[in-house]
Amino acid sequence: MSAGKSSVSNAGSYREIGEYWDEHDVEDAWNPTRRVEFEVDIESRHRYFPLDRELSRKIDEAARHRGVTAETLLNLWVQEKLLQPG
Prior knowledge:
Elements: H1 14-23, H2 53-66, H3 70-83
Helix pairs in contact: 2-3
């Protein structure tokens, strides 16, 4: 937990925060809250594909060697493959 106290419960530890919310409802803390607006990107989607454990290890190693994430490297490789004729 960062220095200081929780803004709603005035708790100084995660345990105290839990104890506070065991005893209180969000309605108890409604007044100190403020309205916020934010956007949610519902167009973004992730799909997960299973990989052999050893293959995954090799991809991690290749990505680390190139200074990119495994996700970036895989996306680049798949894109290159799909752009090839045939």
